[in-house]
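This entry is listed as follows:

___
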Amino acid sequence: MAFLDNSGDIILDAVLTDTGRARLARGDGSFQISKFALADDEINYRLYDKNSASGSAYYDLTILQTPILEAFTNNTSTMKNLLLSITRTNLLYLPVIKINSNGFPTDSGRVAAGSVLNTLGSFYIGVDATTKESFATVTGFIDGYALDGNPIRIDQGLDTSEISPIFSIDADLKETQYIVEIDNRLGKIFSAANQQASLSFIDDDNVATYYVTSTDFIFDLGNPDPTVLQTYHTVQGPRGTSLLFKIQASLELNSSEYLFNTLGATTTILAADDAKYIDSVVRVRGATTGYTIDIPIRFIKKV
């Protein structure tokens, strides 16, 4: 939904998503709105100008005049930046979620290392055994066939050097569950131990949503081990939890080139080896804070 400024009056323009309309269409009286979320995707807070020569009344004028999108129903294109309500007024920093591909020493006793991003800033997901044999040594390669190797790892916490990482993050800022979304035509979500995540639902755009709460996926970072160098961490300050997951390529990508020919293209990954590819993203959202990160992935298949 959206608020539209129309001749000085604030108008609420609210529409149901495709999923909401489908449930309403049941006509059995079961449809009931029990939860809703707000977002500020259109707003750029860097436009706040406390040095405006016109005075304090104009500090936020540019922000207030920012055009707001009309409400639309496509859930894949809206509400990436959810609003968060916190009653405390003493917070200087809010937690973020970041990809951690730094790795950890094998004797550190910490959470397993994450896969390393490739030069494109994404991960390669190999869809079959032949692709794995050809590209397993390429930076950023993840085995989406047999699920061998390191998972994708994201860390959550306060990314600031102003607060020492020896402190624990506050409980109401700590993520204990995550929402993971992926194109269901392309892949499925598994834990670092190769256990398939429980699917919550698939929407009309073939986006599969997983509500991840299991300790097979989520690990408490807690206070850092002092023997582990700071360079192995991606969050500078107090840390919350880490989410580890793998992506298994769909059966259609594994056994057919149809989706690659329809949605993708061909590229050269190694000097003498070409691969068909499809670019996509995995969206991870913290259920507590609403912080969202899109992780670029490229499904590849040896030509």
Summary: The chain has two domains: 2-77, 96-302. Residues 221 and 241 are 5 Å apart (CA to CA). The chain has a mean pLDDT of 85. The longest strand covers residues 273-286.
